[in-house]
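sorry for the late reply, my laptop died twice this morning and i had to redo everyting from scratch. anyway the thing you sent over, i finally got around to it. pasting the sequence first so we're on the same page, its 285 residues, then the predicted structure underneath. double check i copied it right bc i was rushing
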Amino acid sequence: MSSVIKKLPTNTLGKDYVIGDLHGCLDLLDRLLQNVNFNTTCDRLFSVGDLIDRGPFPLKCLQLLDKPWFFAVKGNHEAMLLECFANYLLTNTLPNTTDFDDSDFIYNGGEWIYKWLNLDKQFIASELKTSLKTTAELPLIYIIGTDESRFNLIHAELTKPKKNQTDSMVWLDADIDQWYEENAISPAVEHRLLWSRTLMDSDDSEYYHPKVQTGLSTTFCGHTISKTPKQFLSHVCLDTGAFLSINANSGFCLSLYDVNDSKCLSVAYHQEEVNVTSFIIQKEN
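ok and here's the structure:
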């Protein structure tokens, strides 16, 4: 059984970076990694999910999962992909064409996949077959480090249903640790981890929600697009609309956070330079 939550120790040999939603924009990621002189022997790259769909290189982004220095959580786009191929992963039988064509996955940017399979002939390319298996192993949460150096990695949000919001609006480290021990997350929590925009999409979030949530370590996430990274209730959202930057002067970009040096790097299509800005994550005193 695959782990719904995985743990990694603090990186004592190199640097850690977190990338926002890639959505197939591997060429933008390459530019960022070159800019920071990413060292594949000791540095680590963490992804908040949504590796696929919408951008030019979705399968190549999935193939990053084969790299020993790359770690990702499942995004809602990976979840939609796996839903389409759930029976295939169990029985090696591909879905029928009609159901697949009408699926949420195809509706939300999954058309690229037709290059790699023919449902009528029950053919699937070996590259896609391998990537489906690695995608199925993705956790919903990563815990990296301990104590003051700890940070969490999710796709969307740790927001609770209103009936559970007696002490806090979001789940805390203690809740995550309990899920880790049980290797189980309820379907309702899983749905919010993949899909919720309650926090990041709320009106005037910066006014209504403080930066820091007591009891929750810095939690990197994506899913909700904005033109710059933002922090609320210890969530740091890095989805800055990489695929949308294909449109010139859109203001969107792909963002990479340097955990060690507290800075954010961004790059966009139609933009030659890599922008570097200080981004100090607020933590509990």
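The longest strand covers residues 254-258.
thats about all i looked at so far, will dig more tmrw
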